[in-house]
Amino acid sequence: MVSNQKLFTVGNFDFRLQHLLVIGVLALSVSISMMIRSTPASYGLELFEFDPFFNFRATEYILENGTDAYFNWIDEKSWHPYGRNVSETSQVTLHLTAASLYPLFNFGSSVYDFTILLPLVFGSLTAVVVFAFVRVLGGTTAGLFAALIFSISVPIFTRGLIGWFKSEPLGLFFAFLAIYLFVSGFKFNKGKISLIKLITAGFFLSIGLSAWGGILFFVIPIVLFYFALPFIKNKNNFIMWAAPVFSASLILFSLMFERTSTFIIGYAGLAILLPTIFIIISGVVMKFSNERVKIRNCAIVLISFIASGIGILNSGIVGLPTFRYLNAVNPFLTAQDSLTDSVAEHTTTNLSLSFTFLSVFLIFAVIGIWFLFSKKTINLKTDMRIFAIFTSIIAIYVSSSFVRLELFASVGIIILGSIGLAILSQKIFEQKNQNFTKLIFPVIIIFLFIIPVTLPENNNWLSWADFPPSILNGGSAFSQFASDDWKDAMIWLKENTHEDAIIASWWDYGYWITTLSDRTTLADNATLIDWQIKKIGFALITNPENSWHILSSDHSEDISEYLGEENVFAWGGQTYSDWLSENETNKDCKHVSATEAKKLNIEINDCFTLGQGLDADYIVIYLAGERFYIQDSNIPLYTLEGGGDESKKTWYALISNHEVSKYVQDDNITPTDYYMEKSTLGMLTPFSIFKYVEPNTGRTFDDYYNGFIPVYASELKFKDPENDPFYLVYASPSFYSQEPGPMSTVLIYKINHDYNS
To answer: Which terminus of the chain is less hemmed in, N or C, by CB atoms within 10 Å?
Structure first.
C-alpha cells in the first residue's frame, strides 16, 4: 500500500507516508479548532463569561503571593462579611496550572492576556489527546476522525472559546489524557509500562477532577468497566493488580486537594472502591471455581456488591451528591429551589437543541453503534469495545439533564461516530472493483462534515462561535452587540469609591465587580451561600423602605422584621414554627442550619441570625434593551427585557418567596404597575411605561392586555441625594447615547446612609 511507503529512517524508526498523513490530519484538526475558538477575538480580546474573571484573579494571586499563601487564602472581598476559602471552593489545578505555565510561556504578555489565550491552546491540543484515546479503542483511522469531529463539535468549542478560562478546557484535556492512559494500560499488558500508565492515569484524572467537577462523569464508565472486566478479560491475574493500582493512584492523588478529597472520601470514593474490591474477590472466586460455574459465581458476587453499594448510600454513612450530580444521573429529577432553576446552564436540554448541536454526526454515531454491537463485522478487542460502549452511552445519557452537559453528548458521539466511520471506510476500501464507490465515499464524508459548519447561513456551527465576550455585551440577548459599558462602570467604581466600599448586586455580576473594580461584594457566581443571594433578591424586589433597611444596616443588626420571620427561617432550612418549638428558651437567637454553619465556619450553637443587615454602600443595576424613535419625533423610546436585571424580576420574586403575580403580568415578563412604582428594582429602573403596543397591528394602548409589549420612556425616580434612600451616581455611556439600537446600561446607585426612614 502507498500509505506504507517508507520516506526516511531515524535510528530504528521508519518514517512512512501514513505517519505524514496522521500528522497532517492532526495539524488540520488543531488548526480548525483554533480558528473556530478564536472567533470572538474579533470583538476584542477579553475574558469570556463570568467565572474566568475570578480564575484570572486567583492565578494572579498565586503569582504575586506564592502557592502557600494561595492555599491559606480567605478572600475577604467575596461574600461579605464571611469571605471565601478559595482553595476549598475552587478549581485549584486550573489556577495552579496557569500560574505554573505563565513564567515559561508568557512571551511578554500580561497575566490577563495569558489567561485569555490558555483555554484556546488547551482546547485545541485536546484534539490530539482525543486522537490517542480513540486510536486505542478503534484504531488510527478512528482516532483521526475523532480529532476532526472534536475540532468542530459545538457543545465542546462553545465552552472552550478564547477567553473561556474556566473548568472545561483544562478539565477535558486532563480527563481525555487520563482515560487514554487508562485504556492503553489495560489493553496492552506490558508489566512496568502498564503500571506507569495506570498510575499516571490516576494522577491526571485527579488533576482533571480538581479543574472541573464534571469530570466525575468520566468515572462512571470506569466503574462499569471494572464490573465487566472479570467477565470479558481472560488474564485475571493482570486485572487483579492493574485495577487496584489505578484506583489507589486516583484516590491518593485526589487527597492532595481539598475539593477533590471531599469527592473521594464520599460517594465518588465508594464508587471506585467497591468495584475494585469486586475485581479482586471475583479474581479469587474464578481461580478456585471450576469452568462451568465461574461466570455464575462472579455474577453472584456482582449482585451482592451492587446491593451493598445501594445499602451504604441509603444508610446515610456516605453523603449523596449535590442536586447537579443527582440530576445528571436522574434527568427526571426536578429542582425544588428557584435559585438552582434560575441558572441558565442548568436549563433542561431538548431534542431540537441536541439535533442542532450534533446534526449529521448522529448518523455516524448510529453506524458506530451498529458495528460495535455486531460481532461479525468488527475486529476490535472485546474489552475496548465494551469501554467504548459504556463511555458513549453514559456520556449521551448524562447530557440529557441540562444544557451544560451537552458537551458529554458530543464525547459519546465522537467515540461512536469515529469508530463507525473508520469501520465503514475499511469495508468500502476493502471491496474489489468498486473504484467509483471508493472515489465518491471521501467526497460524501467531506461534504457531510462541511454542511453543518457553513449552512444555514445564520444558524451554522461557525455562528455559534461568533458572539462577543460577555463583558462586552453584559451577557444580554443582543448576541452581536458589544460595548465598553461594563468596563467603564468598573473603572468608575475603582476610581470613585472608597477601597473598603461594599457593593450590592445580583450574584451574576459579583466576579466582574471584585476583579475589575477591586471592591468587596455580597455574592458572586460561586453561589456559595444561597440564603445571602435570597436576601439580596428580597432587597431588590421589596419596597424601597424595607430595601434600605436591609442593605444599609450593619451586619450586627437584626433586620428580620424587614425580611419577614418566615422567610428568614425558610432560607435557613426550617419553618418559624419548627424553630420556635426547638428553641423555647432562646427565641431571640435564630440559628442557621448545620449545613449553613459549616459553610461559614461557625459553631452551630453560636447565636447567629440569617436576618442580619447586608452593610452595603452601593447598588449596581444592569439593564438591557433597545432604543428607538417613532416617526417625526426626536424623543427616544425604549423596549426592555434584553437579559439584564429587568428580565430577572420573576426569578427575584420566586427566589425570595414573594408572590410573583404582584410583580409581573400573566405573561411572566411584563412588569405590573406595582413593580414599576413600589418595588426597589422598579424604582431603580430609570424608565416608566409610556404605552403598550399590540404587536400585530402596531396600535398603542394605555392599559396592558395579554400579548402587548410595553414601551418605556426615560424617567429617573431617585434623584434627591438628601432625601431619597438611593441616588444615582453613575450611568454607563449607552444610557446617555441617542443612537437607536441595543442599550447595555450599568447603573450605580449610592445607598444614602443618612436617609431618614
So the answer is: N
- Share above pLDDT 90 across residues of the chain, in percent, rounded to a whole number: 60
Report the pLDDT averaged over residues 31-55: 96
Break the chain into its structural domains and give their ranges: 631-725
CB crowding 265-299: b at 16 or more within 10 Å, else e: eebbbbbbbbbbbbbbbbbebbeeeeeeebeeebe
For 556-579, give the DSSP string: TSB-HHHH-HHHHHHHTTS-HHHH
Residues paired with residue 520 on neighbouring β-strands, in sequence order: 502
Confidence of residue 604 (pLDDT cuts 50, 70, 90): very low
First to last CA, the chain: 88
HSE, side-chain direction, 13 A CA sphere, residue 753: 11
H runs (alpha helix) in 466-564: 470-473, 485-496, 510-517, 530-541, 544-552, 560-563
Task: Choose among 683, 651, 702: nearest CA to 747.
Answer: 683
The DSSP code sequence of 697-742 is: T--EESS--TT-EEEEEE------TTTSSEEEEEE-HHHH---SEE
pLDDT at position 708 over 60: yes
Cell representation of residue 338: 428557584
Give residue-wise pLDDT tens across range 504-533: 999 999 999 999 999 999 999 998 888 899
| Whether the Cβ atoms of residue 139 and residue 422 lie closer than 8 Å to each other | yes
Alpha carbon distances (Å) from 644 to 17, 88, 93, 624, 637: 56, 31, 32, 5, 18
Q: Going by C-beta distance under 8 Å and a sequence separation of 6 or more, which residues neighbour residue 465?
A: 36, 37, 39, 40, 157, 158, 161
Torsions phi, psi for 288 (to 5 deg): -105, 10
**Nearest by Cα to 552 from 728, 344, 755:** 755
CA distance 247 to 751: 55
Cα gap 656→140, rounded to integer Å = 55
User: What is each CA distance from 705 to 50, 294, 647, in whole angstroms?
Assistant: 37, 73, 19
Contacts of 445 (CB under 8 A, 6+ apart): 421
Bridge-based pairing of strands 637-639 and 6-10 is unpaired
Q: Pull the grid cell for residue 86.
A: 478559595
Integer Cα distance of 228 and 239 in angstroms:
11
Contacts of 644 (CB under 8 A, 6+ apart): 474, 476, 622, 623, 624, 625, 744, 745
Contact 48, 470 (CB under 8 A): yes
Q: Which amino acid is at 301?
A: V
Run of H or E including 192: helix 192-211
Residues 694 and 710: beta-carbon distance below 8 Å: no
pLDDT of residue 585: 47
Residue in the block written with cell 490516576? 202
Comparing 192-196, 237-241, 260-264, 473-477, which segment has the lowest mean pLDDT? 260-264
Three-class HEC string of 197-213: HHHHHHHHHHHHHHHCH
Task: Give the pLDDT score at 680.
Answer: 97
Task: Report pTM.
Answer: 0.91
Query: Using a CB cutoff of 8 Å and minimum separation of 24, what contacts does 704-708 make?
Result: 704/665, 704/670, 706/665, 706/666, 706/667, 707/667, 708/670
